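Summary of Year 1 activities. Much of the first year was spent building the evaluation harness for sequence design. The harness presents a backbone, in tokenized form, and records the residue chosen at every position. We chose the following record to illustrate the format because it has been used consistently in internal testing since the harness was completed.
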């Protein structure tokens, strides 16, 4: 609603994810993205977490936030998935959801 960029990150077990939303109205929002994720609710206490994965994802999140604040290029709406077992990154472009009715998609 306030058109403030969001750098979202998460980690569980050996896996991490990272995505940046510009929230300017033309791209997907966090609600669009969360609709594509499963309803499985994993917790670190039940599933475990590799501390180094949290560190790596946290540093990447901070660097992307720094890039936004300083006007450097950011991979908007690109879901980046980290696999700590293979030490590999995969990425996928996220698109707006037709079922999303949040205020973000309303034209001013």
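For this record, the design step produced the sequence shown next.
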């Amino acid at each position: 609603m306030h058109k403030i960029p969001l750098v979202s990150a998460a980690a569980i077990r050996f896996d991490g994810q990272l995505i940046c939303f510009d929230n300017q109205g033309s791209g997907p929002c966090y609600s669009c993205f969360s609709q594509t994720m499963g309803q499985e609710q994993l917790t670190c206490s039940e599933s475990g977490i590799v501390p180094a994965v949290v560190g790596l994802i946290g540093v990447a999140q901070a660097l992307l936030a720094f890039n936004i604040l300083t006007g450097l290029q950011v991979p908007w709406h690109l879901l980046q998935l980290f696999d700590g077992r293979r030490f590999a990154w995969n990425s996928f472009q996220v698109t707006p959801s037709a079922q999303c009715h949040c205020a973000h998609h309303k034209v001013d």
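The longest strand covers residues 6-12. Quantitative recovery figures across the full test set are reported in Table 2.
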